[in-house]
Design a protein that fits this description.
The protein is mostly helical and 103 residues long. The chain contains three helices and two strands; from the N terminus they run αααββ. It has a domain at 20-89. Helices cover 75% and strands 4% of the residues.
């Protein structure tokens, strides 16, 4: 009987971890959207939050077997990388510090 309860406890722990992936991915995505919407000097870092959200939600979708969401997040990963490139946060294949525009 104890083995049964240990199995249930393990399943609940794993499910809690999977649910955490979902909520962390959502929080990262919303944070990225907020940063981009503010049009502040830190707005371009919203793309970093989006990329992190993409990776977390890809992991969640894989674990849940949500193929449609997996494909969607893979596409969003491409748009996040384009946003990072266009914002100047990445260049030549590495993360770099954004330089202020010349006056």
């Amino acid at each position: 009987m104890m083995i049964f309860f240990d199995a249930i406890d393990l399943a609940m722990t794993q499910m809690t971890a999977v649910l955490m992936l979902e909520w962390v991915g959502a929080a990262l995505g919303l944070s990225g959207a907020f940063l981009l919407a503010t049009h502040s000097k830190h707005s371009s870092y919203g793309w970093v939050f989006f990329l992190a959200s993409n990776f977390v939600l890809i992991a969640w979708a894989s674990k849940m077997g949500a193929i449609g969401l997996l494909v969607l997040q893979a596409g969003f990963t491409v748009t996040s990388l384009i946003g990072l490139k266009r914002s100047g946060l990445i260049g030549n294949g590495c993360l770099r510090k954004k330089e202020p525009p010349a006056s």
